[in-house]
Amino acid sequence: MNLLVGDKKLALDIGCATGYGLRILRNLGYDAYGLDVSTGLLQERVSQSIILANVEDKLPFSKKFSLITCLEVLEHLPNPKVCIKRIHDSLSDEGVAIITTDNPFFVRHYFGCNGIRHCNIHPISFWKKIISRFKWNSMYISHATDAYSLPIFWRLFPSVLFTSPLYGAWTLIIVKKR
């Protein structure tokens, strides 16, 4: 599956905020939907296809999605395992999910869970264990960062995404259902 060519396939952006990611997905040709729990952000939404819902509840879709993005959401959820299950259950048979969450060894400030704060920041070993509970055809988990999270001399290459098993601002998870 070429993720850069949507061909009117269904995509879901979990934690879509005002819909920035939806615009990107639509520009790539996806029929994209968004989901967010924040009523404040949804007042600024760019599309009626953004739905107010909590990913830890039953999702308001009967559709199966070819692509699901869940970027910087898991660390805000009291029970991120439920989100992973919802992602798995909502993917089409050939579906791909791209998930990012904070790397606990990179985060400089750790706050208590109060809805917008980080309450679930775990090492890769935790996410591997959770992800492995579901049937996936392929799974990739690593740390990743962009040049802006690196020391100043690496900022000469601002468009580069670095992946490393030891270093990175985020944990990057890419899974394919079949």
Can you describe what's shown?
This protein is an alpha/beta fold. The protein has one domain (10-176): Rossmann fold (3-Layer(aba) Sandwich), CATH 3.40.50. The protein is 17% helix and 30% strand. It contains four helices and eight strands; from the N terminus they run βαβαββαβαβββ. An eight-stranded mixed sheet has the order 3-2-1-4-5-8-6-7. β2, α2 (39-42) and β3 (50-52) form a beta-alpha-beta unit. The radius of gyration is 16 Å and the shape is globular. It starts with 9 loop residues before the first strand and ends with a strand.
Give unreliable regions as ranges.
107-115, 150-159
CATH homologous group name: Vaccinia Virus protein VP39
In the CATH hierarchy, what is the class? Alpha Beta
Structural class: alpha/beta
Number of strands: 8
- Based on CA inertia axes, which overall geometry fits? globular
- CA gyration radius, whole angstroms: 16 Å
